Amino acid sequence: MIPQYLVDFDLQEIPTINTDCIIVGSGIAGLFAAIKASRDRRVILITKKSVMESNTRYAQGGIAAVIAEDDSPEYHRQDTLMAGAGLCSSAAVNVLVNEGPEGVHELIRLGTLFDQEDGVLALTQEGAHSHRRILHANGDATGYEIVRALAEQVEENDNIEIWDDHYVIDLITDAGECRGVLMQQPGGGRLFLQADATILCSGGAGQLYRYTTNPEVATGDGVAIAYRAGAHIRDMEFIQFHPTALSYPGAPRFLISEAVRGEGAVLRNIHGERFMDRYHELLELAPRDIVARAIVSEMEITKSTFVYLDITHESPDMVKHRFPTIYETCMSYGLDITSDWIPVAPAAHYMMGGIKTDLNGESNISRLFACGEVSSTGVHGANRLASNSLSEAIVFGRRIIERVRQLPPLTRNSFSTDFIEARTEHPTQAIVERRLKLQKIMVRYVGLRRNEEMLTKGLEELKRQLPIFGSVLTKREEYEFANMLTCCLLVTESALAREESRGAHYREDFPQRNDTQWRKHLLQIRDLGIVEELSDDV
């Protein structure tokens, strides 16, 4: 059993700081929510590293919103529902596609400089989108531009305090209500930060896997601390693997954007043969899960560790202008994408599941909200449509703050809960070794293709690490490991429970989608285990 708290503490002996709104995480969700809340609230924005370090920063392709005259919210809705494979919330998707355009215009008002062509916003197309509706910035550096603009607004705002290098250990709850967070300061001291509302915007969990497009900070912290606090966690089996991450000696798993295929790039196996026509009628623009599995199949058939992405037939000037970051990064490793095929392979990219929320971003725990990748709003279903993630963060971030404004002030009284346990043992094995072992377990047993034997074996291996929860933890890397282990267990248990293939979850022993039995969500609740919930997708 995973305990409610990672550490022993006594709130009477810890300094308490009060504020109006706590926001954990500094990606697009956290920064935007902080700006919205600051208009009439005091905000403390907590980031375990720095404001500019988040998954958003590395988002290349862009942000999806209906801007073009020949596009419509209904088209965007249909595309999102198709990609989500029967598990989207129709209501959440309606909110996204109808409120997304205004969110984009708000980003522009806040200083985001999206690319333009002939004086109008430039739009591109990505996989599984029926229309050109992807706005981008500096070619392929959309996330960085959004974070730059929002971070400037946050840093100049007197109502927002930024706490860099602070780590949220756990949520403090009492009688079904979130009171704030227990956190560790850079020097190791702890404090209790109390607020009327706590908003988790802590991002995804790509670091559960050895190969990921996510930065080092993406360790699933938000999902894990919410799970320990009693929040309902939904659909954790659906981990999206991006089909095309750079696979080259000496280079990190750098993301090669979906937009490269949107602009005409084709996939070839190591023999130079184009192969997507054998897997899907949309070829390279098929949904990501299909493209990723097709690539793995070709790698197995040709006994290779990669396939090629070829955009050499497009003009060099267009490629350099549209994808400057990808071009320059590949050049730094000796690859000229205007003349060389790019070696690529799938890598863990995005977590569709997360903390279940309502249409206002609120969890089942009063005063606890989740926004961005850490949340499960119902928008993404079993497979996220490309570039919907940034839109989701803006749309639901605004809704969260509207709901926060309706909350009565928190009653700051004594607690009814005893928070003291009795841990005495310290971790013995180096955390860096444990973390690597965890990542290897997930790649081997809980990756792109799964079956009962693999998942059962993976679960057994993971459970051997459970004694960490009885240890005295004091360092950020120890907390991160405990959170990663929590998320690994959630992903593996839900993947084992879902005996079908749907979206990003593929079971070799149950290769077909089964709507009769499995058109439902899996909720994971700390005191109850797995609970089924019917999908409202229509």
UniProtKB/TrEMBL annotation:
Instruction: Indicate the segments forming the Fumarate reductase/succinate dehydrogenase flavoprotein-like C-terminal domain, all copies.
Output: 435-524
| Active site positions | R288 (proton acceptor)
| Enzyme class of the recorded protein, top EC level | oxidoreductase
Enzyme nomenclature, EC number: 1.4.3.16
UniProt keyword list: FAD, Flavoprotein, Oxidoreductase, Pyridine nucleotide biosynthesis
Record's function text? Catalyzes the oxidation of L-aspartate to iminoaspartate.
The record places domain FAD-dependent oxidoreductase 2 FAD-binding at 20-390
Q: Which family does it belong to?
A: Belongs to the FAD-dependent oxidoreductase 2 family. NadB subfamily.
Q: Which GO terms describe its biological process?
A: 'de novo' NAD+ biosynthetic process from L-aspartate
Protein's UniProt name: L-aspartate oxidase
Q: Quote the subcellular location field of this record.
A: Cytoplasm
Q: Which GO terms describe its molecular function?
A: L-aspartate oxidase activity; steroid dehydrogenase activity, acting on the CH-CH group of donors
Q: Which Pfam families match?
A: FAD_binding_2, Succ_DH_flav_C
At the highest ranks, the source species' classification is: Bacteria, Bacillati, Bacillota, Bacilli, Bacillales
This protein's species is Paenibacillus wynnii
Cofactor(s) named in the record: FAD
Which reactions is this enzyme annotated as catalysing?
A: L-aspartate + O2 = iminosuccinate + H2O2
NCBIfam families in the cross-refs: nadB, PRK07512.1
What InterPro entries has UniProt attached to this entry? FAD-dep_OxRdtase_2_FAD-bd, FAD/NAD-bd_sf, Fum_R/Succ_DH_flav-like_C_sf, Fum_Rdtase/Succ_DH_flav-like_C, NadB, Succ_DH/fumarate_Rdtase_cat_sf
Q: Pathway it belongs to?
A: Cofactor biosynthesis; NAD(+) biosynthesis; iminoaspartate from L-aspartate (oxidase route): step 1/1
